[in-house]
Amino acid sequence: MNPPINQQTVILTGATGYVGNLILKQLSQLFKEVRCITRDPSKLTNLPKNAVAIKADLSKKKAITSAFKNADIAYYFVHSLGETDDFEEIEAQTAANFANAASNAQLSKIIYLSALAQNSKSNSAHMSSRWKVGEILRNSGVPVTEFRASIVIGTGSMPFEAVRALVERLPAMIIPRWVRQPLQPISAEDLSKYLIAAASYNNRKSSIFEIGGADVITYLDLIKIYARSRGLKRFMINIPFISPSLSSHWLRIFTPAHFRIGRRIVDSALHKSVISNDSAKIFNVKVMSTREAVASALSNEEKRLEFIDANPPLRNNNRSNRSHWQLGTRFIEKRVTSIKGDIEYASSTIKSVGGSYGWFWATWLWRVRGALDRMVGGVGYRMGRPLGKLEVGDKVDFWVVERSSEKRLTLRAEMRLPGDALFDLKVACSNSPNTQKNIELTQTVTFNPRGLIGYAYWFGLLPIHTLVFDRIHNRMVDRIQIHTEAKL
Q1: pLDDT in tens, 7-17
Q2: Both 228 and 83 in a single domain?
Q3: Do 223 and 111 fall within a single domain?
Q4: Which of 34, 148, 377, 487 could pair covalently with 116 via S-S, beta carbons 3.0-4.6 A apart?
């Protein structure tokens, strides 16, 4: 008999990837310890309770042995999708090393996520590699629960982000033949339920389960469903003779996918990807339709506000306190400054925005923006805010309070915009190596454009936005520093 889940230790590979990150928090709430194996622990920030980062390269056999000591269950989400052209050999070797370590440690089970496609002699290298990895894991002698899923509908899933980027950026789209292949998308929430349920599944031998959503559609259907969910009209131009290679370059230009990932997406889409049996019903997961999955993905993205706390890509980490990048279709601009100051005063400073307090710099510009908004039927610059503490739902000029806590304020724009805008202010204890700088002031501006007009709006006003938010941030820093000096 295996000990209860809450007394077990689980190994999570691919914790920095999409699927691993999807279930990391839930695993930490269920297991005694979650060991996140990664080549770069610095990418695992703000780990939840019971989770630890372990630096290890799965391609090196001896490097992972100690990580498996006294472990019980392992999740295998390692994928070399976009790394090299010889990814099949890399994936096979990595899986073999993992399988050997799991066998030596006598794990009770391995849970693996693979790809769903109809078995065919013409299967892509990507599809064949996914199935080969499953075979290697099963040969370890450790019982393997392998899920085979079609594309995942959720923020951060590369196929979903590719579809989203195409719909948001292109008013007219070329439709090649491969977008008409049947597939059975699954929501990120439903996928999580299967993966978590597998930890308690009492399997004494290896099993393969095909999982998917409630309906069978095509990529073309998914494009139309997403467009309707965002209120966008898109024209489709059928050109069936476009090659997979040309389609891959098309994705590379207009979506977050680079060529190798774009080619894998296209290659996978060439195959029918639907469930052929209902063996996964034993997990008792009630799955969503594609429309529900898309609506849930967009809704959760807004409600959870997790993208605000995302860290900029390493290439954007420079000496400036400002970094800007794109996460999916959303633009993020973050300013972080470490200073010496009173954290309580800093907290009250970020809460004193709008209304009679003004906006720290060039409040007249905000009034001009409000007047323009009123001219097109918007709320305009209301010039008001409640006195004292701000609560969720309060109005602050042409913003509404989305989140308010002791040291944080998040505002959502109510003005008429071709997209969704958020303005977030946060103070926290600084992690700066300079002990004289004990406070970190973070200002984050995000904008999720709606259609091509949204992109034009963002880039057209970017110089003005950069100037305004730079000055606001700097004025806040100055106010906190002046107060600190006065107290000394």
Answers
A1: 899 999 988 88
A2: yes
A3: yes
A4: 148
